[in-house]
Design a protein that fits this description.
heterotrimer, A mainly alpha (302), B mainly alpha (326), C alpha/beta (290), A: 12 helices, 75% helix, C: 290 residues, alpha/beta, ten-stranded mixed β-sheet, 10 strands, binds adenosine-5'-triphosphate, binds magnesium ion
Chain lengths: 302, 326, 290
């Protein structure tokens, strides 16, 4: 007697047709699923192609010229053979250096203000808004601005003007990452320092900044990396020069501008130099990026 | 003044505590002041940028008026300047680039968040996309000239020959042109769009996803019907921000777009953008031409500012929404 | 809630006392006399528009341990943190009343809170060593105060004082964050006592620790009271009984919708636990021990 209900139950289950639970390729649902899987897979692969293509081209076309001469010689003239990018590399280093000297103090102290002194004030929200605006500022506009402000006043294109233009592009990154890094410092460390009788400045300089240093430095490195690759702000501030830079108030070559100038030239030698300069530039920029990531990770695991 | 506490109380025999010295207090004041000033400097910088460019653009605004915006010739010889082709070219190239980048970026964001690939591949993929952002635009320009243009030329010209009546394919691709510029632009904004889309997709609460699976939806039904709609505002914000970046991108366009004051629907025709116009004309411009370029810079600045503020606002509102929803 | 009965009455009032004595100076207002070193006369304390604590008057005995007990949210931490003006960090904080430290009102507008905190040290609920070496953590206050003497000796003295020396003497230059929770808390105590502040505020110093570490800190407190005046907050009534000489009971009747805490009863620990005068105190202590 008691067997019957159980049997009836299994029969009900049988009515669902359990075979439908198996995967079947014909079912439109499954088909659409598979098609979409392939679509995103294809798109993802497509998205990765450019990076590898760029890296391959840099190594292949730029790698040929890698050598001492590349770094020590001046750019060749039209139709000449040999030559290097020595002055451009030096110019980039100097101008990025100027930009760093200008933007790091402003950025870090500004970040301190945002995170510590007036996090909720009107001033702070306006400053944050201004920094966001600067983040989205087209880099060529920074060049136009510095042209109007510095180049016309000094009466000459100069490495100095180039550095100022780059610093405008570095500032927002530094200020915003510094603020974030300082905010990440646990509140109880701040309390401990204040509780010991630190003035706010002492708490910041002795306790909070050292703790936030990895984050801040990462931001600085990323900003430097970005500045090193910028071209548009230099085109009409630092201009270009075929010679070694001797004074800060004269035009200077840079890696980015040499790539731009030589890319449109009909001479294979100059094109080769452009590729080699690109390789050097990308190595610098990627190196800084990877160093920043590495540094941040190391300090977190410590 | 801080000495008062010590003055009025008898010295404690053991304590080595002392009130802050005057130097410490002065330094504290000075440091606060310095931070405040430097914070203000950021605001001042933005104001100064707008002011300087506006001031230099003013003569041209008076001389050219609104015809500057509607004119389609850049004739430095006759001091007649118009930037309509540049404005349209800027919008066209940015729309194309962002369109391509959105398709790619959302696809990658889905792959990165919806358990399509093992975690290690996710990390790899994420790093590849992030590295794209690190490569300087001038290098992309060089790559575009020597890789992208030759690569797409046969297909482009085939399209022109067979489908030439469609305006999009109305001209041959002889070298630089709108399409190569837009393709490279797409690569450059891809990291922005991917990163922000990924964040907003990842912010969809797991319970919503589980609810869809629990109802028997397939993975793709869940993604298309639940996850993408829920995160659509964030994705839209990322697209707007990507658009803002594309509008101001300079070097890749200056090298790839062709620098021709030319209005055309054709993907293969050379064109120009505002940023590329500045980069190409500025170094050798005359006085009057520089005024006109400042005017063009002001137009570019206005457009990008508006788009960026809009994008930031959308993303901020999304953040508030998802926070409130939890 | 009146403190008259329980607060020790000062034997003498120093004539040189510059502190403004309230008109109703009937209760304890000793100016750094032999007994009380801190006197709290709190009328009202606000966070923004929220009145967190009212009417809390008490005098803290020198070289003794005073404990604040009471239900959560009654304002124990708030009162404690007012004593070295930590609450100044909170936006909207307002203090109506006086706190005299050795006869001087630390809420006088002329007083620099930074100077106050150098004399009144604090140990927090969560151990919060700085992200630097153990050695640098302990010397931090010394360097801050421009200490000129032998730093090495001071470090050893402070670490011995906090019963940590034997455990860390081999690794003074490792990060303070690498220690266990209990060790971190003792490091924080060492950091606080290195500069020999006169008063040590401890806000639930054991709440993040296991019983063994708790016992260690309690022993330490009994040792430290020979040199310092300690004011502590605790949720552990046994602990208050074990270590405190004086106990203050703060209360807020949330069941009645009130949110403002106040001091109900203050006196020698024995009295509070064995013979509470106020009904709220009795209920609270009975509730905890039943
Ligand atoms: N920074 C602050 N801002 C606003 N209100 C606060 C702040 N700190 C504390 N309060 C409020 O003041 C009241 C007393 O808080 P307090 O932290 O002093 O309580 P407590 O007695 O220490 O409680 P617990 O035993 O849980 O630590 C509470 O209602 C609390 O919400
Ligand atoms: Mg508390």
């Amino acid at each position: 007697m008691s067997v019957l209900p159980i049997r009836r139950q299994t029969m009900v289950e049988g009515d669902i047709d359990l075979s439908k639970l198996e995967r079947r390729l014909r079912e439109p649902r499954t088909l659409i699923n598979a098609a979409l899987n392939w679509l995103v897979a294809g798109l993802t692969v497509l998205a990765m192609v450019p990076l590898f293509s760029v890296i391959f081209m840099l190594l292949w076309r730029g790698g040929q010229r890698l050598g001492i001469a590349l770094f020590t010689e001046l750019p060749p003239g039209a139709g000449m053979v040999g030559g290097g990018i020595g002055n451009a590399l030096l110019g980039t280093v100097i101008m990025v250096g100027i930009a760093t000297l200008l933007s790091v103090p402003v950025g870090i102290l500004g970040g301190i203000y945002l995170a510590e002194f007036g996090p909720n004030t009107k001033t702070a929200s306006v400053v944050r808004f201004a920094a966001k605006v600067l983040t989205g500022l087209p880099s060529v506009i920074a060049g136009v601005f510095v042209y109007a402000l510095v180049v016309t006043t000094m009466g000459t294109f100069s490495a100095l003007a180039g550095g100022v233009a780059l610093s405008i592009l570095m500032l927002p990154t530094i200020i915003l990452t510094a603020e974030d890094a300082i905010r990440m410092v646990p509140h109880r460390m701040r309390e401990a320092a204040i509780g010991m009788g630190c003035t706010q400045t002492q708490a910041i300089l002795k306790v909070i900044l050292p703790t936030a240093r990895p984050g801040i430095l990462t931001g600085v490195m990323l900003a430097v990396a970005r500045a090193a690759g910028e071209t548009a702000p230099l085109l009409f501030t630092a201009l270009f020069s075929d010679y070694w830079i001797r004074r800060l108030h004269e035009p200077s070559a840079s890696l980015a501008v040499i790539i731009y100038d030589f890319s449109g030239q009909p001479y294979p030698n100059l094109i080769e130099i452009a590729w080699a300069a690109s390789l050097v530039l990308v190595l610098i920029v990627l190196g800084l990026n990877i160093a920043a990531q590495f540094y941040l990770r190391k300090s977190f695991t410590k | 003044m801080s000495a008062t506490l010590a003055e009025h109380t008898e010295p404690a025999p053991l304590s080595i505590s002392r009130p802050p010295t005057n130097a410490e207090i002065v330094w504290d004041r000075f440091f606060r002041g310095a931070c405040f000033c430097f914070a203000w400097l950021t605001i001042l910088l933005v104001v100064l940028i707008i002011w300087e460019i506006g001031k230099h653009a003013f003569p041209a605004m008076q001389a050219q008026g609104l015809e500057f915006i509607t004119g389609d010739k850049w004739d430095a010889g006759n001091n007649k300047f118009g930037i309509l082709p540049e404005i349209l070219g800027t919008l066209y190239s940015s729309l194309l680039g962002v369109g391509i980048a959105t398709v790619l970026g959302v696809a990658v964001a889905i792959v990165l968040t919806q358990d399509f690939v093992p975690p290690i591949l996710e990390v790899f993929l994420k790093n590849v996309i992030e590295l794209l952002a690190a490569i300087p635009s001038v290098v992309y320009g060089l790559w575009g000239i020597f890789v992208v243009i030759p690569a797409i030329r046969p297909a482009a010209n085939w399209l022109h020959e067979h489908l030439g009546e469609i305006p999009l394919f109305g001209t041959r691709l002889s070298g630089p042109g709108m399409l190569p510029a837009a393709l490279v632009l797409a690569i450059m904004v891809l990291p922005t769009i991917t990163a922000i889309s990924r964040d907003s997709i990842a912010a969809v609460p797991p319970k919503i996803r589980e609810a869809a699976y629990g109802l028997g939806a397939t993975k793709w039904e869940t993604i298309l019907a639940v996850i993408l709609p829920t995160s659509s505002r964030g994705i839209f914000g990322s697209v707007i921000l990507g658009f803002g970046r594309a509008l101001g991108e300079t070097m890749a366009l200056a090298m790839l777009v062709g620098n021709a004051s030319n209005i055309s629907w054709s993907l293969f025709a050379p064109g120009n953008t505002l940023a590329a116009l500045l980069a190409n004309k500025f170094p050798e411009a005359s006085r009057v031409e520089i005024d006109a370029l400042m005017y063009a810079a002001l137009v570019l600045l206005t457009i990008t500012l508006a788009v960026n503020v809009l994008g930031t606002w959308i993303i901020m509102r999304t953040a508030v929404d998802t926070k409130g929803g939890r | 809630m009146d403190t008259h009965d329980h607060a020790p009455t000062p034997a003498t009032i120093k004539p040189a006392a510059p502190a403004p004595v309230p008109a109703n100076g009937a209760h304890a207002n000793g100016n750094g006399n032999g007994h009380s070193i801190v006197e709290v006369k709190l009328k009202a304390l606000y966070y923004g528009s929220f009145k967190a604590v009212r009417d809390t008057d008490l005098a803290i005995k020198r070289n003794a341990i005073t404990a604040f007990i009471g239900p959560s949210g009654c304002g124990k931490s708030t009162v404690l943190r007012s004593i070295n003006r930590m609450n100044d960090l909170v936006r909207g904080f307002r203090f109506d009343g006086h706190i005299h430290f050795r006869g001087r009102d630390i809420y006088d507008t002329k007083i620099d809170p930074v100077a106050v905190r150098r004399h009144i040290g604090m140990v927090f609920q969560q151990p919060n060593p700085f992200a630097m070496s153990i050695y640098r953590n302990v010397t931090f206050g010394l360097r801050l105060n421009g200490y000129k003497g032998n730093i090495q000796d001071k470090v050893e003295q402070a670490l011995r004082g906090s019963a940590l020396w034997d455990e860390v003497k081999e690794k003074l230059h490792q990060s303070g964050l690498a220690l266990s929770g209990g060790q971190q808390q003792r490091l924080c105590i060492a950091r606080a006592i290195a500069t020999e502040p006169e008063v040590l505020l401890m806000d639930e110093p054991c709440s993040a620790l296991d019983p063994v570490a708790t016992r260690k800190i309690e022993e330490l407190m009994l040792e430290l009271k020979k040199r310092f005046t300690i004011i502590t907050v605790t949720h552990n009534l046994q602990q208050a009984k074990r270590v405190a000489d004086m106990t203050g009971f703060l209360y807020v009747d949330t069941t009645q919708g009130a949110r403002t805490g106040y001091l109900v009863e203050y006196g020698p620990t024995e009295g509070i636990f064995n013979d509470p005068k106020e009904k709220h105190t009795k209920d609270y202590i009975q509730g905890a021990f039943s």
